[in-house]
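Proteins fold reproducibly. Next comes an illustrative record:
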Amino acid sequence: MMQRSHLPLLISLALSACAESTYSDLDQFIRDSGKDLHGKVVPPPVIKPYERYPYDAFDIPDPFKPRKSESMKSGGGGLQPDLKRRKEFLESFPLESLKMVGSLQQNKAIYALIRTPDNTLHRVRVGGYLGQDFGSITAISESEVRLKEIVQDNTGDWAERVSTLILEDQERSQ
């Protein structure tokens, strides 16, 4: 029974030992930490009041619409393709899809061999037409076909463009 009477005493001593423990070093650290800190809030930037701006550009031409000079508006003709000419077969293909695969010479005339996307070969000569942009063949050599195309720009005017079909490497084509 002695042991039972000592048990409450031991418990009270253990609890009092926990309560008497001080955290004085921790309290001192907290006090010292905030000593040199002086917080300052930066004020927000000053907002300038909205200033109205009158829009007076209704009389200025739209920069996103193509403009023509007065001489062009009068229909001065200029360069145009022959739209009444009967189209040749190779004009139904885009120029990028046609390949030059060779050349040959007969009776002092040089011809180029052109392959279409369906793998058929066609013989063309200077003065013939290729591609969808009214491309007239101006010169043929062993390695290339030169064309003068007539293309329409975004204002509706016609302009000349020089294009070239270069001989296709046989190893790449197979």
The chain is about 20% helix and 25% strand. The beta strands are 99-106, 109-115, 121-124, 129-130, 135-140, 144-152, 158-166. Helices lie at 2-20, 24-33, 70-73, 170-173.
